[in-house]
Amino acid sequence: MTTRDLLRNQLTTQSLAPAARVNGTATGTTVDLRGFDAAVITVSFGAYTDGTHTPSVLQSADNVNFVPCVYGTDLDGPNNLTAVSSSAGANTTQQIAYIGTQRYLAVVMTTTGATTGALSAASVTAGFPHNGPTM
């Protein structure tokens, strides 16, 4: 049986660096999907202390004008990205597929009611490259 090399057929880019998030909105670095036909957004939570931490995804055709992705139209999966507001969400990972048509994505974390917050990070994995391998 042949082993397939997934490493060179996808590209993972960090959008939100791992950090303790407190009140406010953190918008991640833009990820360019040029040259790929699919993407998965991964949001990871670490230790949780307090607050509500709500992940979302923005999309853009021109890397200037961003609009929110809509579950069912631009995002797909068994569940939408969900807010973490208790220790039950600590040390968890959420994933959702991007099925929209825009070239650029950015992950956003909106935090309210936090004193010390929670650890979180997000990345976008682009797959089905037009030209592989990607590395």
Annotate the secondary structure layout:
Elements: E1 10-21, E2 24-27, E3 31-32, E4 36-48, E5 52-60, E6 67-68, E7 75-76, E8 92-98, E9 104-112, E10 118-129
Antiparallel strand pairs: 1-10, 2-9, 3-9, 4-8, 4-10, 5-6, 5-9, 7-8
Detailed description of the structure:
With 135 residues, the chain is mostly beta strands. The protein has a single domain (11-129), classed as Jelly Rolls (Sandwich), CATH 2.60.120. The protein is 0% helix and 53% strand. It contains no helices and 10 strands. It has strands at 10-21, 24-27, 31-32, 36-48, 52-60, 67-68, 75-76, 92-98, 104-112, 118-129. Strands 1-10-4-8-7 form a 5-stranded antiparallel sheet, with no helix packed on it. It is globular, with a radius of gyration of 15 Å. The mean pLDDT is 95.
Write a brief structural summary:
The protein has strands at residues 10-21, 24-27, 31-32, 36-48, 52-60, 67-68, 75-76, 92-98, 104-112, 118-129. With 135 residues, it is mainly beta.
